[in-house]
Design goal:
This protein is an alpha+beta fold. Among the domains are: 163 residues, no CATH class; 113 residues, no CATH class; 78 residues. 52% of the residues lie in helices and 10% in strands. The chain contains 23 helices and 14 strands. The strands form four sheets. Strands 1-9-10-5-4-3-14 form a seven-stranded mixed β-sheet, with helices on both faces. Strand 6 and strand 7 form a beta hairpin. The longest helix is centred in the middle third of the chain and has 22 residues.
Length: 571
């Protein structure tokens, strides 16, 4: 199922004010935009690839280029707070789908609103009055109204698409900003997972940040203080004392604090202060160190030695510097500017071909299905049918583009049609070695399911040749971003039923998965058990220790304890 977040706050430039007002009324259902086929005159779709973006737009060339440049500018400015290395990375290009509000046929909205009505609701539209027993007429209650989100970001597990309806006459780049929800998504889904203090600090600062043409400005820092602005006069002593850095980085709240909520607020405020301290200073002397420190903290515990390695300070000195910096952070804004003005290289913006239109629009409509299923299940089938029509239009005209085939396959997976999905995914894999990560995983999953069904009445184990059929697409995903946890789950499952004895290097692939997804305790358990089964007891021990530390409940802990007993028996 796709995940969704609003990405751009287009304000009045995209007509969001009207949407917000309508959403407050009763019986209003917000749906993603619905694009019907252009039956009379095709829209002038344009296509471009530039700066890690893939763009499909039916806006004018001038507006399309302005939208692309603005999207790039906002991300360059964001990089001054959150560099690309600390964001969610995807091998798939980020997709932008722009629609000119003047070009969008009104029938697109009317068609889906009509489809949403039940027979009874249709009667209520056709006959607004109902007779009473005394012969008088009473107005029927109106059926639900449907409104359409003018901009929306929908996510799959390996990619995302931004859809935006833009009114050219009202577009103003200075009124466009990245939303906190979007920044939270690319921050929280970065792998390996960033430490909580860094995520919290960045999000707290960004929530009150402002974009201008060439600057991202962080507002003055809020702080917990009984005397409020008195801290600006009396210094840090007027404020709550900082948590010791060892406790702060470990996320340990003060045990003596009677109000856990207050303690959490202090920790969050200190997280924002620490990130602000790392970013600030004349010439930004600590900025690169902050980012490297956060990246290291994603893969190892924060120790005083690690802190000293990057900042040249012990914990006590670092805490003193934070306390001294606090009044400045409360008093002054911090302007973050890139060394050079954001600028894209020259790129062609050309008419989109039929395959590009089908693939990009169809993938967007595929992602809408999960959103609609969660928000308004009655329309799920209609959105699925529309996605299939869009995707199959190019296929039925002879296209066998592997990226199109992969999206068709994913659409069928999402629809629960595994048999149909495998046909398209196999065809895509036969034509290219560079499918998107989720397409590779779903192909491997379907191959394994078919082999498992064959094994049901015969031998219980996979041959090396059968296992390699499943491993081939799984291992292809390891060269791509983002890593998918289910890939490592399936690798472990295949090794558990394979007659081939894995080598140490082959099992090390599972350790790679554990390090990337350490809180996936079932993966930790399977990796430990496989290492123990094949004689790699030292590796099994550290995995069991990790599992005992992270086990979410008593039954999970008992499984690791039983595994530990087996390891101890080997001695």
């Amino acid at each position: 199922m796709s995940r969704s977040r609003h990405l751009l706050s287009f304000a009045a430039a995209l007509g969001l004010g009207a949407f917000a007002a309508g959403a407050a009324e009763a019986n209003v259902v917000a749906l993603p935009p619905f694009l019907v086929e252009e039956t009379v005159k095709g829209l002038p779709w344009r296509y471009a690839e530039v700066g890690g973006l893939e763009v499909l737009s039916c806006c004018s060339e001038r507006l399309t280029r302005e939208l692309i440049a603005n999207h790039h500018r906002l991300h360059v400015l964001l990089g001054e707070l959150l560099p690309p290395a600390l964001q969610l990375r995807t091998t798939e290009k980020r997709t932008l789908l722009f629609v000119d509000s003047a070009q969008q046929p009104r029938t697109s909205q009317e068609v889906v609103a009509r489809m949403a009505l039940t027979a009874a609701e249709q009667d209520r539209l056709d006959d607004v009055a109902v007779p009473l027993d005394d012969g008088r007429l009473r107005r029927r209650p109106p059926p639900p109204r449907y409104t359409f989100l003018p901009n929306l970001r929908l996510w799959d597990r390996d990619a995302g698409v931004l859809f935006a309806i833009v009114r050219e006459s009202e577009f103003n780049a200075n009124r466009v900003a990245l939303t906190p929800d979007y920044v939270a998504y690319i921050l929280r889904n970065r792998l390996p997972a960033l430490p909580p203090w860094f995520i919290s600090g960045v999000l707290t600062l960004f929530a009150r940040a402002t974009f201008t043409e060439d600057t991202l400005t962080l507002e003055r820092l809020d702080w917990l203080s009984e005397t409020g602005s008195a801290a600006l006069k009396t210094g840090p002593e007027a404020n709550r004392p900082l948590l010791p850095l060892a406790e702060f980085f470990a996320g340990e709240l003060p045990p003596g604090d009677p109000a856990l909520g207050e303690a959490l607020s202090l920790w969050q405020a200190q997280a924002a202060l620490f990130v602000r301290w790392g970013l600030g200073g004349r010439g930004a002397p600590r900025r690169a160190a902050l980012w490297k420190f956060a990246a290291r903290a994603a893969v190892e515990p924060v120790t005083e030695a690690l802190f000293q390695e990057w900042f040249g300070l012990d914990f006590a000195t670092g805490q003193k510097q934070l306390a001294v910096y606090l009044p400045e952070a409360m008093r002054d804004r911090l302007a973050l500017r890139p060394a050079q003005r954001p600028r894209l290289p020259d790129y062609p913006l050309r008419p989109a071909n039929e395959v590009e239109m089908a693939r990009i629009k169809g993938d967007w409509e595929r992602l809408e299905i999960g959103y609609v299923k969660a928000q308004f299940p009655a329309l799920t089938q209609k959105y699925l049918e529309q996605a299939r029509r869009t995707l199959m239009r190019a296929y039925d005209r002879g296209s066998r583009d592997p990226r199109l085939l992969a999206v068709i396959g994913l659409c069928e997976v999402d629809a629960g049609n595994d048999a149909g999905a495998r046909e398209f995914l196999e065809a895509a894999a036969a034509r290219t070695k560079t499918l998107r990560p989720r397409a590779w995983f779903e192909l491997a999953r379907l191959r394994f399911a078919a082999l498992s069904a064959q094994r049901a009445g015969a031998g219980p184990r996979l041959t090396p040749e059968q296992a390699s059929e499943v491993f081939a697409p799984l291992l292809a995903t390891r060269e791509q971003d983002p890593p998918l946890a289910e890939v490592y789950d399936l690798i472990a499952e295949v090794w558990a039923v394979c007659t081939q004895v894995p080598t140490r290097a082959q099992l090390a692939v599972l350790e790679e998965g554990v390090r990337t997804f350490p809180h996936r305790t079932e993966l930790v358990y399977r990796t430990a058990e496989l290492n123990l089964r094949h004689g790699y007891t030292d590796t099994a021990r550290w995995l069991i220790t990790l599992g005992l530390t992270l086990a979410p409940d008593a039954p999970a802990r008992a499984r690791f304890e039983a595994l530990q007993a087996r390891v101890n028996a080997v001695r």
